[in-house]
Amino acid sequence: MVPPKESGGFEIFLYSSLMPQKYGEVFGSVCDDYDYKITAIADEHQNVKIKISRREYEVALIPPEFFRRPAMQEFPYTKADFENESWEIEKSFNQLMPGFAEIDEDDVFNDIGIFDFSFTT
Hints:
By secondary structure, this protein is of the alpha+beta class. The protein has four helices and six strands, in the order E-E-E-E-H-E-H-H-H-E.
């Protein structure tokens, strides 16, 4: 298992003493074949920008009456949202983990620095 090429900053090397010229860096691939991809970027103020990309469905094959249902009238479930294939939201750590700050005796949120990650499924 090798991390996607886009993540950067992480390398794997495989060597064999029997065939030293044959092996070396194990290259990751660009992962563009997915149903869902979540990318998150946290800043120094405990805010997180989250982008959710959805490729699970072929929207053209979904019957139009499906999108007329009341539950499909709100973001991010409208037909236009599905056609866009992705949406973005911004949340604070407190919004992502409501109530945690009140019981956080060790001030864990303040120990979390800037980070980003990408997860595909």
